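Input.
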Amino acid sequence: MRQWRSDAGSATVEFVLVGTLLTLLALSVMQIALAAHVRSTLIDAAAEGARQAALADSSLAAGVERSRDLIITALGPGYARAIEATTSEGEGYPIVVVTVRAPLPLLGLAGLDEGLEVSGRAAIEPRG
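Output.
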């Protein structure tokens, strides 16, 4: 009968293969979590800016500035480049809409410019 070759060293190879796959999986999950964090932070900043702009004694520019300050504090200036505020009619009452366009993080914080667009809305308080 023929002798079978020894399995010596196969555990090391298996460990390297499985370890590589698990590392890639863990990094992918962390990247998705980072993208979700960036998105939720931008949504919160846009909503807060809309609430600021909707106050009776405030303006659209104040709402944009509030959103910009929050984004710069939380994520950095690279995410606060494209912010705009507009007014529109929502279901019979005027609203403020603050829209933020920011990079979508694909590899770390680097990603597609303006790949992510979120907006926040708030009802305008009556003036006077």
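The helical segments are 10-54, 60-74.
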